[in-house]
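Table S2 (text version). Query chain:
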Amino acid sequence: MEVVYHGHSCVQLTVGTHSLVIDPFLRGNPLAVTKPEEIKAEYVLLTHAHGDHIGDAEPVARQNDATVVATYELANYMAWKGLKTKEINLGGTVDLGFAKAKMIQAFHSSGIVLGDERQIIYGGMPGGFIIKAEGLTVLHAGDTALFGDMKMIGDRYDIDLAFLPIGDNYTMGPEDAVQAAEWFGAKLVVPVHYNTFDVIKQDAETFVRMLAEKGLKGKVMAPGERLLLEKNTN
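Corresponding structure-token output:
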């Protein structure tokens, strides 16, 4: 499985000739090195309805004739734009053919803010995803606070790679993210949702050192960086 971190919370997973992208937000991200039109994917997975997670969902889905996988409310919103959608909700699993994606809970909010109209469209519950493919398990926590059921999720799943937000203010900060990493028990943790805006500035290398102090492995990925994830058969 090839993993590409596109910055902020945008992650792309490729299995053979098949690919999915989570929370595409590129044009509004000053740190991104990839343009929306460069993304090739069959599925666009959305954790929740905030602009920094759905910002490029429409162009990416439209140019690839891709299917948007999102909560019932957010999927309907995307369908109104003429996009193909697949509805999901917390606890549900969708079979994408080359991978299976289960939506897990996240503690956050979810809504589309229309500034000019002074209106907020409810986007359904926020979530994260557990994605299984090629014998590997990848967790994308979405935007979330720390919550105790992370330990239950870690007990139930053998997680190879976890993407955890560390930016604070809107999500967990580094200290809570270290606790989340302990509970999830992932073999590798990659921090996301930081440094895009001043209010979520963090030192990701310090976070990785904090993980190491707990006996956990972390890796800082730069926007555009690729990682080959292989199953350890030992």
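Notes on Table S2: The helical segments are 51-54, 57-64, 72-79, 149-156, 174-184, 204-213. Residues 174-184 form the longest helix (11 residues).
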